[in-house]
Structure formats: C-alpha cells, structure tokens
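Team,

Forwarding the record for the chain on the shared tracking sheet. I've put the sequence and predicted structure together so nobody has to dig through attachments.
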Amino acid sequence: MDLDFTPGQLAFRDEARAWLADHLPAEPLPAMDTPEGFERHREWEGVLHDDRWSVVAWPEAYGGRDVGLVEWLLFEEEYYRSGAPGRVNTNGISLLGPTLYAFGTDAQKDRFLPRMASGEEIWAQGWSEPDSGSDLASISTKGIRDGEWFVLDGQKTWCSRGAWADWMFCIVRTDPDSERHRGLSYLLVPADAEGLERRPVGRLDGEPAFAELFFDGCRVHESNLLGGEGEGWSVAMATTSSERGLNLRAPGRFLAAADRLADLYRELADDGSADPGLLDEVVRAWTGAQAYRWQTYRTAARLSGGGELGAASSMMKVFWSELDVELHATALRLLGDRAELVDAAPDAVDGGAWMSGYLFSLSGPIYAGTNEIQRNIIAERVLGLPRK
C-alpha cells in the first residue's frame, strides 16, 4: 500500500475543499427528519449534483466524476471537515446505488441512478420487520406473482427516511413455501404505490426518523425486480457489504469528530476545566479514527486491485460503530454537568451537538446488523471458528 497521495488526488482534494467553502449553506439546515428539513436537504443534494459532487465515484453518465475510491474517500474527509449538511439520500447513493451497478439492468440503471444522484428521488430501506431485525433470512412479508406483478402483503419497520422518501428497496418472500434465505426477492417499491401505507415513527426527540410500512395487496411491477426472482439473498448481501463496509461510514465522519474532540479538550484545558485524567481517552479516540482511516485506504487499494470486501465488512462495522460511541462518550465525560445542555441553554457547548451525536451513535451497534451478529460472522467466516 502506497501511503502517499498522487498530485492528481491532492488536486482533487483541494478542488473539493474550495468548492465546499464557496457553497455551504449560510445557516444550518433544519433537521432532515421534518417535512421542511427533508426538502431543504433534497435541495442541497441538487446543489451538489449541479457541480458533480453528489456521487463523485460514479460514471459521468450518471452524474458523477468517474474518480476512484481514494478520491471518494478524500472528498468524504473534506465534506465532514467542512461541517456540510447530512446527506438525506444516503440509503440511495451509498447502499442501493452500488447494488444497482452490480445487479441492475441497463434500463434500471438509466431509470434510477440519475434521479438518485440529483436528489429528485430519495430512498428508504425496507428490510426489518417486527419479528425480523438482524436476522434478515427470517422475513415473512410476501410478494406473490400475479402475471407481470408482485402482490405484496406484510409489514416492515424501522425504515430510515421512510416517512418522506419517494421509493423503498425491500426484501420480500416470493416463494411462500421457502424458508430462510431461499425464495427471497429484492424489489424497488414506489412510495405512492396503491396498497402501501406508511406510518411515521417518532424518536425520543419527536422527529419521525423512521416509518412503518404496511403492504395490503400492494402491486409492484416485475420491471422493479432487482436481480432474478428468488435471488434476493445474494442481492441483499451486496447491499449489506456496502452498509457495513466502506460506503455507509467513510472515515471522514470520525476524523472530523476526533478533531473536534481534541479541540474540545484543548479549549477546556486552557480555561482549567478539563479533567487531565481523560487525556488518554481523547488520545485513544483520536488514534482510533486515524487507524480506521488507514485501514479503509488499505481496503480501498485492495478493492481497486480486484479484491472483494466480503465478511471483512463485519469487522469494519464493529470498529466504526463502537469508535463513534466512544468518541462522543469521551466528549460527554469531558463536559461533565454541561454535557446534557440543549441548544437553547446559555452554557451549551457546540450547540448541544455532542449529546445529540452521542444519542445517534448508540444506534450504530444496532443498525446494519447488530454487533453481536457481526461478531458471529467474524468468528465463523473470517476466523474459521466452529459454530456453537
């Protein structure tokens, strides 16, 4: 692995940095899990797309810059360092997009990828069910063939962005006599399809970050089948590899948080309020972010050389999700009794961002497959240990 960036990669990084400095919104956008905030974030996706920054690693024909993984990682670092708005279409561009490239027909790519890149169509993930969370193979929502259509009946839950999204990608059981990972199919479902009802699910802060989906005779055309009928498990595994590995959580997110944590410690140390006993925790968290960065670049080099991510994505997922928790928990310990102050409080630090970030980080070891499940995968498929 070459630890030096090429002149072209550094020029790309500098171009991204300059563009972000010139185009960031003057004021923070409203929370994306509100109707107004969702649309404002959709508009921001359009701003990125206009200058081909929304999906830099995609081909130019679909709105990208056709650059490599290293350039994409550098862009992500600059994006998070700049404090740019969150990406409302992460489910689409980071999870479904790579899956479409691998399994989609030319017609499906032409139909969905440009609108995904521009933010015209925002995607939600419809996988989990009330009795099927990390165990994807146990889903029961059915999609029974009726000529050119699949008729869906069942329920999905914890659908991120599901309250306002335009489309959902769902896993359904198209062979009613099948069990476990057999007989599943991967369908792209329009949110306005007849027979589909979605009910927003509020978080503790009241914002509907999720939705429940209820299918009651919902008809989805066969042209929206991704991969072959009954081959949904293989297609879904490609998506989970993106979800647990590089695509969903690039190092830039954690590098920016680690730098903010180091700045927080220095600021508190300057006014004499920092607990020096926490310095080692700050250093460990900052070092962890750097370690994840270089491990990711190593993985990117391997993938660029024709390698596959495979079960190693589970190791990445465990590491970045637990790193995120520790970064924010360390900040809260540093802040002491100011840690829980909300944005409106006179003494709130960084607009209460550390507490809100901590609350979100707690979901990391759960979504994309719980870390308990990931450790089982690591034990069996990476280390070759016997199943208990």
